[in-house]
Amino acid sequence: MTDGRVTAVSLSATHTFGKTRRPGIRLLAGLGVEGDAHLGVTVRHRSRVAQDPTQPNLRQVHLIPAELHDELEGAGFSVAAGQLGENITTRGVDLLGLPVGALLRLGGVATVEITGLRNPCLQIDAFRPGLLRQVVGRDEAGRLIRRAGVMGVVVAGGEVRPGDAIEVELPPPPHRPLDRV
Known about the structure:
Blueprint: E1 4-11, E2 20-22, E3 25-28, E4 32-33, H1 46-51, E5 61-65, H2 66-74, E6 88-91, E7 103-106, E8 110-117, H3 123-127, H4 131-135, E9 136-138, E10 144-146, E11 150-156, E12 158-160, E13 165-169
Parallel strand pairs: 5-6
Antiparallel strand pairs: 1-2, 1-6, 1-13, 3-4, 3-12, 5-11, 7-8, 7-13, 8-11, 9-10
GO molecular function, one term: catalytic activity
Pfam families: MOSC
Protein name: MOSC domain-containing protein
């Protein structure tokens, strides 16, 4: 069953906030996006490396739904694919509603296992003032809601291109809700 589509793919070889759109990217099993600064078995995000560089890299691939870009546009924020640092922009998949361990098959070969939510930081406001409030909020009970996409690890490598189908496979129950990674 096809659940959605890849609308854009992006990468950056250096630790920049945004990533450059590409015609295609290659996912490498156990490592991440070939040529991306966050490629590796252990953490590559600077703040995580400073805490403990031996931590496993649960943030090899960053995915954001294009529907978030649409919503941000409606709120007056022009944001294009890759500009929030995502590697893969999707449409038609409720990324934030997936449980930990959900598998996304991208283009039929590459597979990403969802590990958790992106924890957005103040760099978002440096990119567009006020944007952080659009992607982080509180629910009625006061719990923090993160909407800046999901993170995952590559379990099967392969090429990913805009237009590729996305198939979602849920893990066996009980499902664990996503938390920040």
